[in-house]
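User: Here's a chain of 732 residues. Predict its fold as tokens.
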Amino acid sequence: MDLVPALEEPLKKVLGPATAKVMAEHLGLHTVGDLLHHYPRRYEERGQLTHLADLPMDEHVTVVAMVADARLHTFASSKAPRGKGQRLEVTITDGSGRLQLVFFGHGVHKPHKELLPGTRAMFAGKVSVFNRRLQLAHPAYELLLGDAEETVETWAGALIPIYPATAKLESWKIGKAIQTVLPSAQEALDPLPDTLREGRGLVPLPEALLKIHRPHTKADIADARSRLKWDEAFVLQVALARRRHADAQLPAVARKPKPDGLLTSFDDRLPFTLTEGQQKVSKEIFGDLATEHPMHRLLQGEVGSGKTLVALRAMLAVVDAGGQAAMLAPTEVLAQQHHRSVVEMMGELAEGGMLGGADQGTKVVLLTGSMGAAARRQALLDLVTGEAGIVIGTHALIEDKVRFHDLGLVVVDEQHRFGVEQRDALRGKGKQPPHLLVMTATPIPRTVAMTVFGDLETSVLDQLPAGRSPIASHVVPAADKPHFLARAWERVREEVGKGHQAYVVCPRIGDEEEDPKKKKSPEDEAEKRPPLAVLDMADQLAKGPLQGLGVEVLHGRMHPDDKDAVMRRFAAGETHVLVATTVIEVGVNVPNATAMVIMDADRFGVSQLHQLRGRVGRGSAPGLCLLVTEMPEASPARQRLNAVAATLDGFELSRIDLEQRREGDVLGQAQSGARTSLRMLAVIEDEEIIAEARDEAAAVVAADPELTTLPGLRTALEALLDEEREQYLEKG
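Assistant: Prediction complete.
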């Protein structure tokens, strides 16, 4: 983060080429500065042990524990047919649990001599299961003797830092490398303005780096953490504040709707009144559209809160003002769906220039990658002449060939599937930068919105339109109680009997090639069966519990025309049950579908389950969502499903989701690289820091947009944005 000569020094020079290569390849660390910002994941206290009971499967772990016993076994094998094969089994304990270590062949001699009962050591390896017990095979280890010169020096202080490590480089080797470069921390340039640092009582950066890597007390760790969290929050918020500042300088055409134009005619046609929330959000959007700077707004709304209607009214306002509006959807199914629903909502207003079309109507065209050449040519022509006021499409809209007459507004649906660079590409198609409205149905806690979408203003739609029905959600524990699953299929038949329809969602399609290289051990087979697949499931249901009902499948690898045909039949009520992958997660709207059964629900994330569930209960009949799982009662996966079943509040669920996952996952799927550079900041816990950092950053940027008086901050920012640009290139 801090690019100054001492910290810019390549690790090759300091640690030697072999170690530097592993650090670069496996941990992404290239310079002394990178290594200093590789913080310990946690600290072990001498004499205090890791909880062996909560070790994660398949992860690389470091534990500090004591040898309880060690036994050498001999056995016969193909390599040692005369019973000369050797296996050393060592049991280590920490008071909370036991863990088995195994060593084979020539690898047994050294540990057999060194790992005697009563010895304490650090062990590192990958946790696996053998005979239903946790074990580490051939772990690396470092004895904690406490008397040899080097050991006392290296492990000085009661707190042993445990670093995020890899199989190629154990935590203690990273620790030793950090001790080598720690003196350079004195030269770290401080990115925080002095007044801010002193005003908040934060320690200087060099001191924070020293304390995080070599703490003497827990207070040292706390001081260092609060300082380093501020750095991350502040530098990131300055980057976002500068982007907002730069955007605010751009010119845009103000778009004000005509008093009795297209928007008014559309509002007159609506068979219902807008909710208060929709009116409030529309007012914010129209306010932005009327200014001569481009709008950058994020519209967050629960599944079914009527975001599409709000976006359509904004698009009509722009068409009224002589511009064009483009709506970008993440998938073809969704683009077609949006196109259909917009045309239905607009009626004859969507047939501008056609026979029977309204006088002040406009043309609404669809543009996707799989359209036929003639239809595509016509759509492109309608855009360039301005005949089409509204275009709805997929990534195909971003291609070079697409030209607009006068692009005034871009609406992006389901933001987390579009990067900043794609937004910018579409934005570049206007004569002046168009206004931008980003919609998401994934509720995002306020702080995440500030961190991930910090360059956008936020509007929230949190009421559901009148006439929406509640959705009852239940967890179906298929392994513990198989009769519950049988009952689930009966419930589906009952819903169909009442004239309704149902979805069955599976994690996989089922025609994937098996990877012959992947050999599975019998334990693997028992522990992890492959996720259920759409094609198998549809077959089983049609021949079994749902025999006699119309069952069809829908998944992402079908030809777009086939997908569209399946969706049309389902929307028309000709199909009773649709067995699908998550292609139905966003935007599919069939009000008559009242039941959803999600198979292997534990394989989906919390927000994904919430999105899927939002596909039922869209009409006046109550919805039912059944989450089927084989996970045991006490597992974290079951707790997650219980949380989803317990509340329909997406904002509440998104908090639970974030608390359970690491931030990196949430931020990583967002716009771009810089968001994943949070090493110390926890978006939910550190809500206050982020909010305060945002205010401080806005003030700093307003006073000095170029940061001329803050060289340390400028340097930190360049490093952050460099990382961001690198990520772009990798993604490109």
